[in-house]
Protein 1
Amino acid sequence: MPKELLKGNVAMAEAAVRAGVEAYFGYPITPQTELLEWMSERLPALGRTFLQAESEVAAINMLYGAACTGARVMTSSSSPGISLMMEGLSYIAGTEVPVVLIDVMRGGPGLGNIAPSQGDYNQIVHGGGHGDYHPIVLAPSSIQEAIDFTVLAFDLAEKYRTIAFVIADGNIGQMMEPAELPPMRPLRTEYPEWAVRGAMGREHHFLSSIYIDPKDEEVTNYRLMQVWNRIQANEVRYREYYIEDAELVVVGFGTAGRISLSAVRNARAQGLKVGLFRPITLSPYPFKELEEISQHAKKILVVEMNSGQMLEDVQRAVKGRIPVEFYGRMGGMVPFPDEVLAEILRIQQEEIPLDGDPRQRWMERFAPIINWKN
Amino acid sequence: MVTTATPVQVVYKRPASLSDTPTHYCPGCTHGIAHRLIAEVMDEMNIRERAIGVAPVGCSVFAYNYFTCDFVEAAHGRAPAMATGIKRVLPDRVVFTYQGDGDMASIGMSEIVHAAGRGENITVIFINNAIYGMTGGQMAPTSLPGQKTTSSPTGRDVESMGFPMKMAELLSQLEGAGYVVRRSLHDPKNIRMAKKAIRLAFETQIRGLGFSMVELLSTCNTNWGVSVLEAMQYLKDHMLPVYPIGDYKVSPALENLRV
Amino acid sequence: MPVKGWIEVDERYCKGCELCISECPQNVLALDLDHLTPKGYHPVMLKMEGCTGCGICAIMCPEAALTVYREVPQKAAQAVQPSGG
């Protein structure tokens, strides 16, 4: 397929269509609404299911019902809407039915704003719904990746009967970039054995997340963890740039990773040994790979569009071997490459302590940037 | 001469759409009657194999154990949304939810109203027993004025706790509703009427006439703190005046249907 | 002569709730106080002659525990037999 100039939200929607999505349920919310709008036009024209739900709560439960039939299904939303979906996500995880979600993150907490953010890292990677479960989380940093990861999300969700997220931010959702869409896959004609589609010529069965005897629920939790172990062993994805001889490694995902890459290239042009590590799967997180990096590099800089939610996972991987610094913008603010470059230059020159809290150090440096007065 | 053996007729036997599993309901609970009626209708219409039920959260959370059709289990109040997802993907299946008053008229109010408003081709069996059963007898949105519950110990004061939710009346106002009626399970005549209504509700769905709901006035003798027979009397004396039995919305296309 | 009927009670299901007893038009049902079901309830039983097999007990039963039979009246049985039978 030739490259086309595509808007992120539309590209992800069309990628899902071509991946064979059979049903989409969603609710309008900026900055992902174009995705819903695209689906509203495309899916009925293809004889597939599109429904605008009355709320994100309803959308996720419609998705849950449709997923129980074994159909390829997805929804999309943005941060506050994802918060509303957490109840349903926990039920979906407990029922072990595959679903795909796209979260085009925006500034928060609360109503926040509609500007790009990465504030959903914790609610998606580290929890959200009640109980023990781990979704697969993919973070694109370009329109092409947004397309590719949307397709991949369906395959992974079904392979492991799990939740697969694509988390983009308002930047990825709203910007236009040349990218290549995949060919249209045929819709499936066979459905998994576990699907609830009517007890035609077979014993009736049901899908549920209820295991009223704690012994059974414990076994279910163990099974979920077994699946998670397989996912951790097989599905870690990341990109490395200029890592081989890098003394300072910048770690960032999605848009923050993309902006950091500009800064890293600029630093390289100045002769600095700087690289970028960009996690693609935020869950499972590339702990092992980061750990290896921390055995060769001298310093790490984590860049995020939040107050350091991934920072804690980086620290877990680095285990205090080398100093970690943090630079973040919050609430819908996006860092400029120059800001990241300035941090790179500073860290290259300064002695960074091994102990102490990188978030606290960043807050002190950051106060003048926002004209903070105590 | 004709044979001396007198021919025997089976007047009633357990419907095939009910599973062999004994229910967990308290003795005399009308959930069992409602289950039985749904199963009888599924047998009569021969729809068991293409029926998909959606169980709620509440006393009937285990409803899926008691039927021989496929089932899913919804989050509290979300059964109409889940049923919508199933029905939209599998429009030729017969999809029904089974919901209590807390599930539907409180936490699930949004989902039920919008399912009805969309004219979703699903059938809803709504059990109104004016109380939260599973959690042990708290006030429901359908609790009667003055009704004592564990969370309205001095009786439901409508000034501070609001008025009973009249779901049949409310949903009947929506254009998407094809069949919305209220029936009661307190005596044989009303149970027969309830069964006919469940039949018509499924017929509504099969004919694509929109959303269908049968509200069934029910008892909870355990949490009402009375005997099984007293509960039936209480329903008759106290619930019927607040929740009149009736046809609140019947699609004109159903008017000439005889079942 | 009235129609003769009878019931079978499936003791896996009967919980002795008495709804059938209260609605029996012939008043021929009672709890069997000498007997317990596996779940520990006194099940319903026919206490005397007079059941017509009307099925109202089964209409009331929340557990679908009852099977109701009745003898087809001779006249009706003959009426449905093929001629010359």
Protein 2
Amino acid sequence: MTGTGALIRLALRRDRVLLPLWVLLLGFLPVGTVSTYEGLYPDAASRTTLNASSGDNPSIAVIYGKAFDLTTPGGFTAWRYGVFLALFLGLVAAFTVTRHTRAEEDSGRLELLGSAVVGRYAALTAAVAVAAGTSAVVGAVQAVTLIGAGLPAAGSLTFGAGMAGAGLAFTAVAAVTAQLTEYSRSANGLAGGVLGVAFLLRAVGDSSPGASWLSWLSPLSWTQLARPFAGERPWVLFIPLVAAVVVGTGGYLLLPRRDLGAGLLPMRPGPPTAPPSLRGPLGLAWRLQRGALIGWTVAMAVIGAVFGSIADGIGGLVGDSEQVRGIFERMGGAQGIVDTYLALIGSVFGMVVAVYAVLVALRLRTEETGGRAEPVLAAGVGRTAWMGAHLVFALLGSALLLTVAGLGAGLAHGLRAGDLGTQLGHAVGGAIAQLPAVWVVAGVAALLFGLLPTLSAAGSWAVVGVVVGIGLFGPALNAGQAVLDVSPFTHVPKVPGPAVSAAPLVWLTAIGVFTAAAGLAAFRRRDVG
Amino acid sequence: MTTAISVSGLVKSFGRTRALDGLDLSVRTGEVHGFLGPNGSGKSTTIRVLLGLLRADAGEVTLLGGDPWRDATELHRRLAYVPGDVSLWPNLSGGEVIDLLGRLRGGLDRRRRDELLDRFDLDPRKKGRTYSKGNRQKVALVAALASDVDLLVLDEPTSGLDPLMESVFQRCVAEERDRGRTVLLSSHILAEVETLCDRVSIIRAGRAVETGTLADLRHLTRTSITADLSGPPDGIGELPGVHDLKAEGNRVRFDVDTSDLDRALRALTAAGVKSLTSQPPTLEELFLRHYQESGR
């Protein structure tokens, strides 16, 4: 453990911009809803209607989680943000742990530190302390600001503690995944996979009355299960604590069983000669991108199937009440409630795939800074060919992922509804309609890489953050149309729907292609390295 | 005699730092040209301009008869490059990288590839991540040497190689020259350049300070001598070619030009030698001595 304090200070210094940003963003988001809620639902009548319409609706629960009491601003906030804030905090915690453990080993820097007077467990302890500390600070900020906004203290504290608990749980998960593989990329991938499974578990649990026990298995549900502002059950908050201690201990037990720099999963020798497919820039890009593409394809198929399998129940549930039906149709403006739902999950698929597109585009930058672009560019590969080969995956890979997600949703929904022919088309159409918006995000990432390479990573993730933030929270925060219009996903017509206009799809595609081409042109003109 | 590389008045700045400040360089076809300079003198920047990775701010650059920035792709099929710090893709095996780079350049000689793997004692099955620095260097060297190209651009290629592998490398470069290939070899090790190169350009702070054959640069290749003598070292300081003599009792330290080494040694043995160490001066010492006044 020797040296842990120094390593904590080092980690805080390296993350001195990133971590405060996350604390601000995740800490202050809940309190923003309170006034919005009071403005949108000023009286008891409107709140009761909201509670009746959204409270038990499985199609909404699949995304946001189970609502326990939507008649108070606190209950609404806990429902609206419980899952997604936990998800983001989980990502922040996991990536922080990986960045200060496996990524440091990966780059060889930890070896340098390890030769100084630093204990075997110091790096892991420091990373866990920073990630857990960040989670605790975010939870504390949330609780304090909610109390400050006049909400009950018990509920506010339960909410904040629940969020901190979720961060803690994924800190522990990352402490284990960082021991398993040799690369930080795969360690983050494994932690992200655990988050994805946690999201799916609760998506099914929250939306299917018969399987609600599944939600108890998901760290993302624990905040909502502690029922902040709806008859608090503080004992639920012990679950993340116990889980974090148990899982985290696993990480500490695994650490001494491996060498520095090595993973627990063994490394196999490779082929002595290259396969025929490994030729040309596209062959290389395929080799570098295929693992991620296969993983994402499987994940999107599963996510699509889960979301799709719930679609059929929605029409019947909402059908009882004219009033609720009205609300739903206003929400989407489309004819059928199921169609509205399919269009809604289509946009969720779109935003998830946008993350993939940015990851692919940023691979260009890591190849460049890692010194692996240089030998390729000095071996007869033109710059357009090299960059274009990776962009093929950003553009066509995202088309594949959206199609697969749509197919998954369409198959699952169509089979349950006994109407495979129509529903498959609807679901695939709803997903594919998002492609132009994904291309806009990918195009901007490519443009940043060509024009402002040093800012490409931060800039691209900022774009994703803004787009996803507007998509998930914009309507709830009652943001103006001008703000909503910033996101390309706002402009995607509702598919399936009665009046699908092709015009926005055409100009979104044009923007995506134009920005990508401008990025290529800029890359041809700048220095490499 | 034709010119493979011709650079004149090359300027390249990064922000406020002027990395190259009017550099001239001329490499003749078929020669091994040493490109010598201390760390940070601009060797790698020059090479990256020659490869079209960086765009020159000013100056004329011609490589194999073309413009390295405009005709990059066509020129690159005729050259092979070994970077000073080789990074490999962590999940590709060494053999895969060698084949890939060869194919990108338009094919490589499989017999020669296998022969080189054998000579460099390199296991092509290991993944990029698991290679040591020296072995990563070998992967890039094998890929370059097995390609059928006119020009080899080698940026400090022996950094990380052990002495045995360094001599393998030197034999390989000599063979390449015998096949009529042009080699640009950047280095900060004087001895390496002495063994391999027909002509040498010396660069410092972004400018070429000397160019010529090794004979032209003979004044640079002094030897440092330290000796314990039986008697006082009388008269050694006055010998031609002896510099910077320091004497403490019967112990002397001095530098001597290679051409005058014989005479200096005779003078030493005449005084009676008890112990003797001789070593070539480091490049840094030479630079300190020769170019101090040109300033940083």
